Amino acid sequence: MVNATPRLSFLALTLVGFLESNRFINVGATAIHPQIPSVASFIDADGPGFVLSASTQVIVDSKFQDSGAPSLLNYAQTFREDLVALTGFNSVPEVKTGSIGDSGAIFMTLGATNHTYFSGVATDEGYDFEISAQSYIIKGSGAIGAWWGTRSLLQQVVMNSVASHGSIAIPAGSGSDTPGWEVRGFMLDAARHWFELPFLADLCIYASFFKLQSFHLHASDNIWDQNFISGPDWRDLYSAFRFQPSAGSPITGLVQLPNETYSRVDFANLQATCAAHGVTIVPEVDNPGHSLAFSKWRPELALPGAPDSLNLSYPDTIPTIKAVWDEILPWFTSAEVSIGADEYDASLANDYISFVNEMADYIAGQSGKSIRVWGTYEPSDTMSISRNVTIQHWDFPGDSIPVQLMEQGYRVINSEQAFLYLDGKTSDAGQFPVELDQSLMWGGAPGGGGWAPNIFTQDDPSNNTNPQNPLLRGSIMALWNDWGNNATTPLEIYYQLARSLAVFSEKTWAGSGVRDTALTQDQFDSIYETLNAAAPSQNLNRAVPPQRNNIIFEYPTITEPQATAFDSVGPPYTLTFTIKPSNASQISVPLLDGASMLVPFDGGVIFAGNDSKLHVSSLSFEDPSTQLWYPLPYTLPPDVYTTVEIHATRNYTYALIEGEVYWWMTNLDIWGEYMKLANMSFAAPSHFIGAEGFNGELRNISLVLGS
């Protein structure tokens, strides 16, 4: 599930800002290295610390090896893989079971007690740890708690990584740690933007490094454009349902984009990868609003004049939705699912409430799972949503009022948009930031104390609750893709999420103003880049090993297709080449019977990689995941040598050609009200040169880190 670009271990790479970030958090007379999220308590000890080396043994307490799902042994095996990826110690022995008898071992066991969330509810997510010259002991209150303990160990490896003869020393001491809330996660809108499963798996692995435990996958929806919705062409508006039904299923027609769906087997593999890293996928199928995919399949189910909403009073609507859940419920390993249920016609409140309650009962009866809904206000004097349903609040004060909901006995998850919403690439009139607003995260509570899951508004403390409220389950931040596939590449989505997930992890683990050991913004900023670069077992940064003079490759000339050792290289970079494309309008393509045929020729692909391709035609970048092309306002002259310099950062990509600058852009439809140009950022297509039908000459080729 990781990008195959050659990558040395983090410890063999330059430690970005390590000397600046190697500060300490003081806890009374003790001191520990800061990490994300912060550890609740630590007391240092006299004497030498634990020395980690290529011969360090990972041992699982045989009394508890099968405890948990995944089991303690499963977590230990994944931890060992991460340890190897982080340190480069490829000879670390395979995990074994036994007792603490061996010296020089990392020992994972269970039995930690008195671990509770801020609400006082006991949790399996806590852990204690003890570090000595003889061992590094992690004792979880459950298997998942021991797993989070391994994240702390890895981060301490990073922050103590001053290599000496192939070993790393971690200072002696003991500590204890527990998250403040049960739900700590992120939502990704995968309905209005297609994402391939390896990218989603890598997001899980990255989020796990910062102890986030929930991945809310928004898997059905449609682009909003009132001109389409209310007009005759509503079927042309982009919509998607991402789960691929089984062959012959009665709901097969729900899928209009079969190449943009997840099969049951592939989705099971994704869930297994995420679960192995402590992350649960919570899937969402959004009804009765946001339901254009359903109306395209069964137009009779739609509300008259509003094809993006379902008519809940139509006799076959709810049975159809139940049939969809019958198909996909067996796929999901999570204890709960989301049915969406937001932004529906308020005049149909009773129909809406009846639907939510009926689906809650039905899904519980079929699978034992509970449900979540988005916190939509239902103006009914006669009915109310069941208290068995969790309300995921998102809009204060326009829809639900969380304090009132909790007073009425509802369990609430905080996804308040004023703090926690992002939109792919841009938003309407700057409503949402590109990444979570750091000033709000660190100083956005009344009085400036910083955001936490118990904070729903900056302005009125009476509309916030206390961290100990047992009905406050936690928080989920959200990244929407309102503008569709062409707004971003998957890696641009990661760029928006990377820092946001890390700061969000701190605030949902430690809160604001609850623990003295919680990070300050300065402490977070001093270590984030180091920990981001170190996050193991994925390579969303598309980082490469250090190169002499930052040169990834150089080729004086290319006479035939050339493969390199680099699948993809993340920005910033400069890609330079001189090209003379062929003047041919047609080329001869061989057929299986030995004959050939002439086909139209667009010049072929100059460079190709896992995350992008660069075509001769209009020097177009292609996103292979969505197969969308992004052309330059420029055409290469045939049979003439032209030198092109491509400069890329995470915010933009441009070409310098004969002294002129040309930008790769995309044009976004904002709610059907106006168009907006936005820059595109592409990873370097670095794996193949002059492949995929390229016909022409290439010389003076170089790829250099830095823009």
Task: Pick out its properties.
single chain; 707 residues; alpha/beta; Chitobiase, domain 2; TIM Barrel; Jelly Rolls; 3 domains; eight-stranded parallel beta barrel; seven-stranded mixed β-sheet; 14 helices; globular; disordered N terminus; beta-N-acetylhexosaminidase; EC 3.2.1.52
Low-confidence stretches: 1-8, 14-31
The CATH architecture category of the largest domain equals Alpha-Beta Barrel
Please tally the helical runs, counting DSSP H or I stretches of 4 or more residues. 14
Radius of gyration: 27 Å
Distance between the termini: 28 Å
**Strand content of the residues, in percent?**
25-35%
Number of strands: 40
What is the CATH third-level topology name of the largest domain? TIM Barrel
Can you walk me through this structure?
This protein has 707 residues and is an alpha/beta fold. It folds into three domains: 10-177, Chitobiase, domain 2 (2-Layer Sandwich), CATH 3.30.379; 183-513, Glycosidases (TIM Barrel), CATH 3.20.20.80; 548-705, Jelly Rolls, CATH 2.60.120. The chain is built from 14 helices and 40 strands. The strands form ten sheets. An eight-stranded parallel β-barrel has the order 12-13-16-19-20-21-22-24. Strands 3-11-8-9-7-5-6 form a seven-stranded mixed sheet, with helices on one face. Strand 21, helix 10 and strand 22 form a beta-alpha-beta unit. Helix 2 (72-87) runs parallel beside helix 3, helix 4 (197-209) packs parallel to helix 6 and helix 4 runs parallel beside helix 13 (490-510). Mean pLDDT is 91; it is low at 1-8 and 14-31.
